[in-house]
Amino acid sequence: MAKLTLDRVTVPLRTFELSLSLEVGSTVALVGPSGAGKSTVLNAIAGLVKPAAGRITCNDETWFDAERGVFEPPERRRIGLVFQDYALFPHLTVRKNIEYAKRNSADEYLDRFRIGHLADSVPGSLSGGERQRVALARALARDPEILLLDEPLAALDAHTKIEVRLELQQLLASLEIPTLLVTHDFEDAAALADQVGVIVEGRLRQTGTPADLVARPADPFVASFTGANLLHGERRVTGLGTTGIRLDDGTVVSTADDGEGALVLAVYPWDVTISTTRPGDSAMNVIAGSITAITELGNRARVTVGPLTAEITVDSLRRLGLEPGQQAFASFKATGTRVVASRPSEG
Amino acid sequence: MRRALGFGLFVAVAVVTLAFLALPIVGIFAHTSPGKVLDQLSNPVVKDAFIVTLKTSVVAQTTIVLFGTPTAYLLATRRFPGHSLAVTLVELPLVLPPAVAGVGLLAALGRFGLLGSTLRTFGIELPFTQAAVTVAVAYVASPLYIRQAIAVFEATDPHLTAASRTLGAGPVRTFFRVVLPLSRGGLIAGLALSFARGLGEFGATIMFAGSLAKVTQTLPLAIYQEFDVNFNATLAMSAVLVLISAVLLLTLRIGLSWRSSPSTGSPSLLGLSSSR
After folding, report:
1. How confident is residue A347, by pLDDT bands cut at 50, 70 and 90?
2. What is the sign of the dihedral through the CA atoms of A294, A295, A299 and A303?
3. Based on C-alpha coordinates, what's the Rg of chain A?
4. Average pLDDT of B191-203?
5. Which helix (H) or strand (E) element contains residue B258?
6. Contact B139/B93 with Cβ under 8 angstroms?
7. Cα gap A330→A336, rounded to integer Å
8. DSSP conformational letter for A178
9. Which of the four pLDDT bands, split at 50, 70 and 90, describes residue A41?
10. Nearest CA of chain B to the CA of A178: how many Å?
11. Is the Cβ–Cβ distance between A184 and A32 less than 8 Å?
12. Which pLDDT tens digit goes with each residue over A113-153?
């Protein structure tokens, strides 16, 4: 797979300076609060913003090198950029939008993104989900070496979002080019990317797999920002008002939300309780296992049991005498879970 | 009671205002008729003035569009030292008394003007030629088009031009395939305003080009000349200009309500008034 490299790329912004090094070889998400400089990173890679210093290379092409005075204009960089508002040309039909790059015929992409029936419509008449598919088709029809997504789910309503997130997940998994996406939502980042970088005021605070960041956040900010544990599973049984989900490791957990087929469940670390004996309280979900990680942050600690990370106070950590390797039970209530993605099973 | 009285006052004032604005138009059409206007169109003075006006207007407006559009795009999308000075320069003819514009053109391009001797070495003598009418019209009317064009270009979504660039189109192709089609309505509106202003041009033209029948005598100049000779011709020409202005104003409204034009309301109608 191709590789994009950012080497100490520096862009002065209004109140701070963006400065970061990054390697994108698979699907990477930059996550951070709004105004952290996320979109600027994408604009710098696309050539829409000229950094003050650093180097940007893609495979063996140099797109930007401050020292050697190299700056390729956007039209000379093979990137597919999907804007937050999709930026479809309002005066052109869907087909003309996709053919704008003049590289590939639109038919293949109309087919692949299931938008053939919209070929002669103008963007103004499409729904949010349809617009995003057109924008993705247009970006990929250019044959890019890298795909850049700016807040790919922010423009969608909550209902559409769950569906589109799963669609996007499948698309990104099938692509043979690296993807860099930026989002302010850790759940989106965790659901879509293999590697997540947390960016605050123009600096990368920490990078790692989503589970890594939840289990071992480098500082309190990352801890507060990298919200939820994500559990992947399949819908199995329905109880009285709850849905049973068999996780990939075989454990069955309950959620108060409903969904179909393959599901992704979010559980927040502060909603998870850790105990050394099997609890007998109202929590319906108990996961047993040995503690794989303990990370202390001030007066809080993150404790990981199996696929779950809990956030507890350091006081509790000491009181229970928790150590890595020790057997423990992580429990959470069915009401403390949320279905963040679901896909009807095929057949 | 009191509120009703206050509202009634507003209505009364509005009625007086509208009546005042409508009265001159009504006056022109009250003193003439379609038949009389058609009769007068075969009057050589009227016919010649009409042809001169049409010819000079078309040449002047074409020049304004060809030079004004790229200039406006640059001023709308780039910030450089002297930017506001450049914008002021573009707008200056709008507030300059037309007679002063005429003097300026003479002092610059006239026989003894700044560039007069240079032009003469090329065998060009501008003043009191039909080309001079075109120059005067272009000078006085250009701000109306360029100002509108700047506003329309500034309102173009920067994400759309950025998207075009990332899809492999250079700045020029982006301009012709994205910016221009999206700005079409607003640009037509600007052109309509500029055209209307050019048709009524009087002061700068009479100073710089004179009022020679068949050469430099445009409709407004002919109206002034025929005023105490043939009042019927004056009325006919006035009626024609009123009709053309109305059509242009309609074009402007249609242009501005175009789907892709910015919805920032109608542009200033400053300069639409007679140049006298």
Report:
1. very low
2. negative
3. 22
4. 93
5. none
6. yes
7. 13
8. -
9. very high
10. 17
11. yes
12. 989 999 999 999 998 889 999 999 999 999 999 999 999 98
Backbone angles phi, psi at A56, to 5 degrees: -125, 120
Report pTM: 0.77
* Complex-level ipTM: 0.77
Which residue shows structure tokens 């175009």? B258
B179 Cβ under 8 Å from any chain A Cβ: no
Asked if residues A276 and A323 have their Cβ atoms less than 8 Å apart, the reply is no
Closest CB to A101 among B167, B182, B260: B167
Q: Contact B162/A48, CB-based, under 8 Å?
A: yes
**In this complex, how many residue pairs, one in chain A and one in chain B, have their CB atoms less than 8 Å apart?**
61
Is residue A118 within 8 Å of A126, Cβ to Cβ?
Answer: yes
Q: Which of A49, A63, A83 to mutate to test the interface with B (most CBs of B within 10 A)?
A: A83
pLDDT in tens, B207-245: 999 999 899 999 999 999 998 888 888 999 999 999 999
Q: Which two tokens stand for residue A90?
A: 């309002």
> Contact B168/A102, CB-based, under 8 Å?
yes
Whole-angstrom distance, CA of residue B54 vs CA of residue B36: 21
Q: Is A202 within 8 Å of A13 (Cβ atoms)?
A: yes
- DSSP secondary structure string for all residues of A158-187: HHHHHHHHHHHHHHHHH-SS-EEEEES-HH
The alpha carbon torsion through A271, A273, A278, A284 (nearest 10 deg) reads -10
* Residue (of A16, B89, A311) closest to A303 by Cα position: A311
In angstroms, the CA B272 to CA B276 distance is 11
